Amino acid sequence: ASRSASVSLAIGIGGTPWQRARHPLSRCTMQVCTLTASDLACRRGDRVLFKGLSLALRGGETFARFVADVSALTASAGNDASLADIAASLDKALDDLKASALWLQNAGTANPDNLGAGSTAFLHLFGTVTLGYMWLRMAQAAISAGETGESSAAFLNAKIATARFYAARNLPETGALRAKVEAGADTVMALAAEAF
User: Fold this and answer.
1) Among 34, 35, 171, which residue's Cα sits nearest to residue 95?
2) Exposed/middle/buried for residue 71 (C-beta within 10 Å: 0-12, 13-18, 19+)
3) What is the DSSP letter of 172?
């Protein structure tokens, strides 16, 4: 038998009267959504209207490719003395992302509420790492451009300084975001629905 643990949610379908008239799927004002450990599917009757993406997309290949890209960048940038501090911060943030993803995968299978409780913090964590990845790439490009004289030194130095700022001031937030993810659903689900 398949896993039956799920959380049902009702979501409203908005839009203008014109949009609701032109798009039959939006005529319904409420839809029931089932959140399971592996997917998010909104249903109207027996038709699936939307299936959300998950970390398990393509067997986890997409997430694994992102992790590999970031790891390769931090390894190459770590060998450059002018980028080593940025690479080290990003590498630590990536460790937080990987640990959070693994925790969600395991804890979400055991209790799907953990997925919902940790989802916002996980998305912020993922976004923070992604921006760190982009800033390290820009810093690397700025150093390369400076060596070839393609751009003004002041502009390129500003890119590197901004990347260093992001690594020092924003990437450490991933530790707190990981703690939020791994806090689980107990405190989120502690109040009964009647308490609201």
Assistant:
1) 171
2) middle
3) T
Buried b (16+ CB within 10 A) or exposed e, 40-56: bebeeeeeeeeeeebbe
Residue 8's Cβ-side half-sphere holds a number of Cα atoms within 13 Å equal to 6
Asked if the model's pLDDT at residue 188 lies above 80, the reply is yes
Q: What is the pLDDT of residue 55?
A: 63
**Mean pLDDT confidence for 2-23:** 41
* Closest by Cα among 173, 60, 74 to 125: 173
pLDDT at 195 over 90: no
Contact in structure between 74 and 87 (CB atoms under 8 Å)? yes
Residue recorded with tokens 């390290």: 136
User: C-alpha 131: how far from its chain's center?
Assistant: 11
Q: What are phi and psi of 41, to 5 degrees?
A: -130, 125
User: What's the average model confidence in pLDDT over 103-110?
Assistant: 90
